[in-house]
Amino acid sequence: MAGAEPRELLDLAVGVALDTAAMVRERRRAGVEVAATKSSPVDVVTEVDRAAEQMIFDRILAARPGDGFLGEEGAAAESTTGVTWVVDPIDGTVNFLYGLPAYAVSIAASVDGEVVAGVVVNVALEEVYTAVRGEGAFLGGRRLRVGTPGPLSQRLVGTGFNYVAEVKVKQTVAVSAMLHEVRDIRRVGAAALDLCAVAAGRLDAFVEEGLNPWDVAAGGLVAEEAGALLETHPGVGGNPCFLCAPADGFDAFRELVARSGFLRE
Predict the structure, then answer these.
(1) Catalytic option among 88, 194, 224, 225
(2) Is 93 a catalytic residue?
């Protein structure tokens, strides 16, 4: 549609994400407290999450009135243009709360339901991952390509855990089973950054159950544009389970995920 070129959407997203990241970084220096909880007492939200989402909502909708908006903290708007923005204002809120340098601003633009542009900014490290569908993925000015996976026993796999205890128990059993067949497991605590790590060759694969659209929209596009596949299957805990790995060797990783117990039989 007119005015919805993916490159233009990315340029808007990058500018807003960088400004939001700067605000989040400054607020972190001032100290952070939990404002509320969501799915469980350990699934937290801070006032900075809310302020960041409001900032993104205001900036994007001012620039593109009529676009839709889907934000983790509840900001929403119906689209009359075919464009919807899918936003996680701070992916990795617990890391943000504790001062661990792995939290990100994630903004994706979808057109008629397909993500076409996305940016993920690692706030603490000031790394900027970008992608436009069909045009590749980048870290700053460097084009990203997934790593060349070796045998399963040499693959480094990222994962995450659900905040609902019953689901987490099932996930930990699956992770324990997988651990015996891979090089090691990493749990960073920010799915958008995990997906970007696959794109950059910093992880060989990623699996997690219970993610939401805002967790995967931008990072998933970055991974796909770097040569990864991203699939969703029914998870053992009753939620969608996301698998991401280089296209080369993906089938072997999917089989490993299944026999480890991540997926519903």
Answers:
(1) 88
(2) yes
